[in-house]
Amino acid sequence: MSFDVLQKKIREMKNPTVAGLDARLEYVPEFIVKEAIEEYGETRKAAAEAIYRFNCGLMDALSDIVPAVKPQAAYYENLGWEGMEMLERTIRYAKEKGLFVIADIKRGDIGTTASAYSEAWLGKTKIGDELVSGFDADCVTLNGYMGSDAIKPFLKDAQSEDKCVFALVRTSNPSAIELQDMMAGDRLVYKVMAELVDRWGKTTDVGEFGYNRVGAVTGATYPSDLRQLRKLLPHTFFLVPGYGAQGGTAEDVHFAFDRYGRGAIVNSSRGIMCAWKKTGNNGTDYAEAARAAAIEMRDAIRAVTPIL
Amino acid sequence: MSFDVLQKKIREMKNPTVAGLDARLEYVPEFIVKEAIEEYGETRKAAAEAIYRFNCGLMDALSDIVPAVKPQAAYYENLGWEGMEMLERTIRYAKEKGLFVIADIKRGDIGTTASAYSEAWLGKTKIGDELVSGFDADCVTLNGYMGSDAIKPFLKDAQSEDKCVFALVRTSNPSAIELQDMMAGDRLVYKVMAELVDRWGKTTDVGEFGYNRVGAVTGATYPSDLRQLRKLLPHTFFLVPGYGAQGGTAEDVHFAFDRYGRGAIVNSSRGIMCAWKKTGNNGTDYAEAARAAAIEMRDAIRAVTPIL
User: Fold this and answer.
1) Mutual angle of helices B189-202 and B223-232, in 10-degree steps
2) For A251, A257, A265, B80, which has the most beta carbons within 10 A of its beta carbon?
3) Predicted ipTM?
4) What is the reported pTM?
5) Distances (CA, A) of B152 to A100, A245, A274, B102
6) High-pLDDT (> 90) share of chain A, %
7) How far apart are the CA of B122 and the nearest CA of chain A, in angstroms?
8) For residue B280, which phi and psi values (nearest 5 degrees)?
9) CA B39 to chain CA mean position, Å
10) Residues of chain B numbered 106-165 and touching chain A (CB < 8 Å)
């Protein structure tokens, strides 16, 4: 089962982290950008190529110590179709490297539209008599503001293609509270969402580690919420953003894990991708710097949360 | 101002409707699909080409009677990058035809990620010294579950590029109630969202018809909510899905308009795109059928809601 595959990778590497692939041109060392612009001019194609080379270099440096990558769709979409083409290649390369791919798309729509998104990111689309893949990630992030109609179509593909999803519950940003912390009846809005996640998850199968196919996004920046959510959702795998640059620490994210140090994965994007900016070598050592940052993060989390 | 442009088009055509471009292969007449598959095989390229030809035919048939189109991103994403490339072409063609383009993307993410989505769909991305467009729509739909952080970055581009957004408030689907109808304090969750929309809108300028740059998605299938929202949000332009196939009628959507019959646009996707399925001519008359359906919808709405 999909979250079992992820949990096993985490256990092998003793590393419950996912490297964000936020494909921002500002994160790519100058020498890579320059080369691509010389080749293709100041175009979307050049930007896409620069980022692809950087992504591949990062994955080469990380694939034996980090179990998963999380490309953020926004940073590919802003390069138009050339960005999306490069995202497909990035996902393909990640899989070749044995990395588990969480496509951070935060899609949320209903009915046949949700089915189309699901086909795009997890499943297949029928063309004539052929079933054809789209971006073919292992897992996606989703937004459940529209309710079950926005989630259930994905669960069909998750089940048939052995994949999984993370629904937004408690996000890591400051304005998360504006809606998510309103009192809804006797509960906060994000807890209503947590209960929906639990309900959706119960319609799927459960893997050997006890987790069903509907995970939750639960930000590191609200650790007391994390602790409560962990209790409330014993069968829900957590994706934890907000570590590092956004302020979350190894102590904060500890609450996301179960008693065996399982059931959660912590994201870092800038901390790993931009580690080269702190070494003073103009990015020529970006791969080593990323690897060192990933090891540091792994060890920091592991020191607080042993993984059994 | 962007919503003024739309309102003027609506007034000229006396037609407050937007034609959804849900690019489903099942909606495309067989003869178009067959031709594309003969040319390109059973591939994503073939599907994209078939849909593009259909989209263009529809827009040719509609552009003098319908003010706007709303491509739904999901149906392009599920054809991978070829679908996204075709979406760019579709948007370009729509603009050439003078149609106002609402990209139905329902994106919702935060900070720099939201900025990247905004660059992708409304603004421009910096590559070297060049500013390069992505999909370049006139307007997008957004999901505000993550709060202001998910909306504000779009307002910067909306202001500088003279564009606008619609945030989800009350969606038209049956499960909308699961979260949106929870009591939050003394209000329902969707009314909390409505107040956020009002607050975001007040940070932008207001056009000559009295509408600011932050519109709201308010489903036709909950007409009494529509009526309340119209009162609550006098400066908010409404995008109303759920007409026709989903059950909304001209009487239902009447409540979305202000006293001058302004401030709202009603979507129809299947009703127009699939009109050919009811004429018994195997889609050879899809353009005429779409045009007739659009005129019928226009007249039905206009009969209940005169546009001044």
Assistant:
1) 30
2) A265
3) 0.95
4) 0.96
5) 32, 21, 25, 18
6) 86
7) 10
8) 75, 25
9) 32
10) 106-114, 116-117, 119-121, 125-130, 132-135, 143-150
